[in-house]
Amino acid sequence: MNAPLPNTQQGMRRRNLSLVMHAVAGHGPLSRAGVAGRIGLTRAAVSSLVDELIRGGLLVELGREQSGAVGRPGSALSLSCRGPVGIGAEIGVDHLAVCAVDLHGKVRARASAQADHRGRPAEPVLKELAELIRQVTEAARAEGLRPAGIAVAVPGLVARDTQTVVRAPNLGWEDIDLGDSLPYGVQLSVDNEANLGALAELWIGGDPAPQDFVHVSAEIGIGAAVVVEGRLLRGTHGYAGELGHVPVRPEGPACACGGRGCLEQYAGEEAVLRAAGLTATGRGVDLLAARAADGDRTVRRALSTAGAALGIALAGTVNLLDPQAVILGGALSRLAPWLLPSLERELTRRTAEPARPTLTVSRLGSEGPLLGAAHSVVRAVLDDPSSYAA
Amino acid sequence: MNAPLPNTQQGMRRRNLSLVMHAVAGHGPLSRAGVAGRIGLTRAAVSSLVDELIRGGLLVELGREQSGAVGRPGSALSLSCRGPVGIGAEIGVDHLAVCAVDLHGKVRARASAQADHRGRPAEPVLKELAELIRQVTEAARAEGLRPAGIAVAVPGLVARDTQTVVRAPNLGWEDIDLGDSLPYGVQLSVDNEANLGALAELWIGGDPAPQDFVHVSAEIGIGAAVVVEGRLLRGTHGYAGELGHVPVRPEGPACACGGRGCLEQYAGEEAVLRAAGLTATGRGVDLLAARAADGDRTVRRALSTAGAALGIALAGTVNLLDPQAVILGGALSRLAPWLLPSLERELTRRTAEPARPTLTVSRLGSEGPLLGAAHSVVRAVLDDPSSYAA
Prior knowledge:
Strand content of chain A: 15-25%
Helix content of chain A: 40-55%
Oligomer: homodimer
Radius of gyration of chain A: 23 Å
CATH topology of the largest domain in chain A: Nucleotidyltransferase, domain 5
Number of helices of chain A: 12
Largest interface: A-B, 57 and 58 residues
CATH architecture of the largest domain in chain A: 2-Layer Sandwich
Strand order of the largest sheet of chain A: 5-4-3-6-10
CATH class of the largest domain in chain A: Alpha Beta
Number of strands of chain A: 15
C-alpha cells in the first residue's frame, strides 16, 4: 500500500519508526529497552522514535513497569486503542459487510446487510455500501478512533494499483471504478477477495503463520492467492490466482473462459450442485454442507470428485511453487470434511515427498476477506506510521 | 546472495554504495553529478561514496568529461575492468563449462570439456570441474582480475541456501555437497540450472528485460523458473519450478515421480524421441532439430504434440501467476519453430485476453545457466560492493 521509503536520513527514520511499531505490535507491551533489544538500535535512538510515536497518538505508555534489572524501571509501551482504525468492506454476491479494526487487531465496530446482488447494477449496491461505511466510521469516531483508510474486497478481478473492478462475473459488473462512488476523504483501496483472504491468513490466521502458501477459497467461482516470503503475488496485471481456470482435463467440458476442462468445471459451485442433482435457491454451499452432513451419498460423491479435481490442480501448483502450506478458506473450509480425503490423495501421489506442503483449513473461514481488508489498512499504518500520526 | 543490510548509518551507507554501483552499471559512464541525479542523493554525499568505491578498485575515473553545463567538467565514472570477476560453472549431463565475467558483464576467460556424465560418480566429475575452475581463475588473475566468488549451475534440485545437490536424476547423483569438493577460498554457491538460466534472462536477456516471467528450459527433463518483480521465486525448500511434473492428463502415462500424465511424459526429451520413433546416441535435441529442419513429418508431429502439452501446462501457470512473459530457453529455444504453433494455440484458448503474456524465445539459449551463474556473483558485488573492495 505504501511506496518504498527513500535511502535518506528521513527515509531511514521512517523505516525505524515502522520497526518500533512492528516490535510493539508483535511483542508488546515492551519497555523502550525491550524495543531497542529487538530492533538492534540504541536505547537513545529508540527513545526519540517512541516519543514521536506517542505524540502522534500511535503508541501509549501503560505506566511504570517493574523490571527485574538494575536501573530505573521502564514504562511499558503499547499500541494506542484510540488511534487509527482500518475500515474493511466486503461486497459479496449475497451480502455487504463493513468493519473497523484498531491497531491491536480488535474489531471495534461492524455492520452488514443481506441481499442478492447477482445482476444488480453497481450504483445502488455501492450506495448501500457507502451507508454502511458511514455507520461504522461514525461508531469508530464516537470511540475516539480515526479512520486511516478504507479497503474494499470484491469477488472479481481488480486491475493492479487501481480502484477499478475490471470484471466480476457473478455480480455482472465490468469496469466499475469504486473511487467514483465511495468518496470519503481517506485513502481507498480495492482488492480481490481471495487476495485479502490470503493476507488475513498471513497476518492473523495462524501462530506462527506460514510465509509461503497457496490460499484457495470459493464463493461461486474458485479463487486462489499465492503468498511468497510473506508477500502477496499479484501478477503483472493484478490477475494472479485464477486457479479456477487451471486445466484439469484438457478435453473436458467447455468453460465460459473459452478453455476446456478448467477446475471450475469440476469443483465450482454450479458444477458440484449439478453433479449432486441439486438446485440451490439460497446459498449453494449451505445446501451442500447440510446434505453432506446428513450423509447424502450423491452429494458426498460429488464433493469427493470436486476434491480430486482440486488435488490435481493443486499438485501442479505445488510442483511449480513449492509452498510451505496449502490452506482451504472461504466456503471451501465448510466443505473441507468431504473434499479433503480425495484432495489429499491426488496431491500426495503427484508431488515429491521433500516438497509436499501441509494442508490445512482456515480458522477464519468466510470472515477472511473482510478482516483482511481492514487489516490491510492497519498494516499500512504499522509500515509507515509517520504518515498516519495525529 | 547477500543478507539484508541493517537499518543503521553503516547499513544505509552500504545500501547507497550499491545504488552508486547500479547507477554506473546501468547508465555509465556517468559523472558524479549524473549519479547524484539518478539516485536522489546530494553531490557531496555521492562524491564520498564514489571515492570509497574508487579506493576499493570497483570504480575508475575515465578522465575529464566535457559537459555542456556551466561549472567545472565532471570526470566520467565507469566500472573497473580490473576489479572483481564472477566465476560461473556449469555441470551438464554431457559437458562441463566455466567462465569469468567482469563487472561490465564481459566474459574474460572460459574453459569447457565434453563428456557423458550419466551415471558417473560425482567425485571425478567434480575433480575435472575444479581443474577447469583453476584454469579460468588463473587466466583471470593474469589479467589483474580478482575472483569474487564461484557459482555452479547443476541439472537437479538444490536445497535452498545450501551447496547440496539433493537429487540430479539425469546424473544419478543424490545428496552431493559441492562445498566438500570445490574448496577455493572464495564464496561458493550452487543453484539449479533453470534458476540461473532465468536469472540470466532477467539480467542480460532483453532490453528492457521483463520483471515478471516464467522461463521454461529443457535439457533431458523440463525445468522452469518463475521470476516475480525481478526476483526468483525459489519455493520453501528451493524446489519451485518443477513444471515437468504439472499434470497434463491426470490419467496419462505413469511418471517416475509417482504421478501420472505429467508434462514430462509428453514433452520431455525421452517422450518426444519415442513419439518420433528415434533413438539418440548423442544429444537428443540435436537429432530432433536436424530431422525437423529436414522436414521429417513424424518428428514434426511429435514436436507439435509436445508443444500442445507445454501449452496446457503453461496455461495453468499463466492463470495462476499472471506473468508478463513466457520465455522458452535452453534446448527448447532450438526446437521453438516446431513447438510454438501448437503451444501458442493452447495458451491462447485457455487464458483470458487481458492477462495473456508475450511468448518469446531466449536469445541466450543454452548459454543461459553458465552466464547466469557468473552474473550472480557480479550482482552480489553490485548489491554490496563494500564486501568486495580490494
